[in-house]
Amino acid sequence: MQITLNKQPGLHISAKTREIIVDITVYLFIILFMYTAASKILTVKAFASTLAKSPLIGSYNMIVAYAVPIIEIIISIVLIFPLVRKVGLYASLLLMTAFTAYLSYMVLSGSKLPCHCGGVISTMTWQQHIWFNLGFVALAIIGLTISRKKK
Amino acid sequence: MNKIKKAAFGVLIAGLAFGFSAFTTIKKRSVYYYYQINNPYGAPNSPSGYAYYSGDRCEPGGNLCSSQWDIGTNTPPATDGQSLPSTGVTFQSGSVINGHFE
């Protein structure tokens, strides 16, 4: 008896759909980074004073308070240009992973958590922030995976 | 959409996001965090016992550490420890931060 094994085709997504998914991913990151960067820059003193309470940042609070929104704006600019947006997606993934690792450390270490979240999406709890960030980490991975398949 | 159109749309999105965020942040400029330093068991929306501090001064434990108040046309607080004006201020509902003043 002969058994024929049919290779199951993977989830087929057309090139056009892939392109649209990558575009949406990129625009969502641009919105997130520009929105949060503006808020952080305009309330930089409050943001820095919140960071000063963090055991991981402490006296570097002013440097971090300015560096984070500047990095977010740079990544947004890189994401705008289609030729280098893949680099921007890698940078976005790295930044969101760093944010998530920092939040997770703060929550899991039992450190005293500063009450205000720098005025940015400030209604979220720290746990909700972790899930929000993980969503964007997943989005970056999806964007990168799809843009890799495009070629 | 070609590459130039995509880049132009990206610039538009970035500008709108930055502008919207700046607009909502600036609009809240008459809104300040005041810390409840004298009356931690009082009603959060009563202006008595509140004082302004520039930094984050909350610590865990307790139900009322700080809340946001729109001070309207009152003079913005300049120094730490300045009391919340008793008139012309509006409590911002949903702004209460749990904990207690350090």
From TrEMBL, chain A:
<feature type="transmembrane region" description="Helical">
    <location>
        <begin position="128"/>
        <end position="146"/>
    </location>
</feature>
<keyword id="KW-1133">Transmembrane helix</keyword>
<feature type="transmembrane region" description="Helical">
    <location>
        <begin position="20"/>
        <end position="38"/>
    </location>
</feature>
<dbReference type="GO" id="GO:0016020">
    <property type="term" value="C:membrane"/>
</dbReference>
<keyword id="KW-0812">Transmembrane</keyword>
<feature type="transmembrane region" description="Helical">
    <location>
        <begin position="58"/>
        <end position="81"/>
    </location>
</feature>
<protein>
    <recommendedName>
        <fullName>Methylamine utilisation protein MauE domain-containing protein</fullName>
    </recommendedName>
</protein>
<dbReference type="Pfam" id="PF07291">
    <property type="entry name" value="MauE"/>
</dbReference>
<keyword id="KW-0472">Membrane</keyword>
<feature type="domain" description="Methylamine utilisation protein MauE">
    <location>
        <begin position="19"/>
        <end position="145"/>
    </location>
</feature>
<dbReference type="InterPro" id="IPR009908">
    <property type="entry name" value="Methylamine_util_MauE"/>
</dbReference>
<dbReference type="GO" id="GO:0030416">
    <property type="term" value="P:methylamine metabolic process"/>
</dbReference>
<feature type="transmembrane region" description="Helical">
    <location>
        <begin position="88"/>
        <end position="108"/>
    </location>
</feature>
Automatic annotation (TrEMBL), chain B:
<protein>
    <submittedName>
        <fullName>Uncharacterized protein</fullName>
    </submittedName>
</protein>
<feature type="compositionally biased region" description="Polar residues">
    <location>
        <begin position="75"/>
        <end position="96"/>
    </location>
</feature>
<feature type="region of interest" description="Disordered">
    <location>
        <begin position="75"/>
        <end position="102"/>
    </location>
</feature>
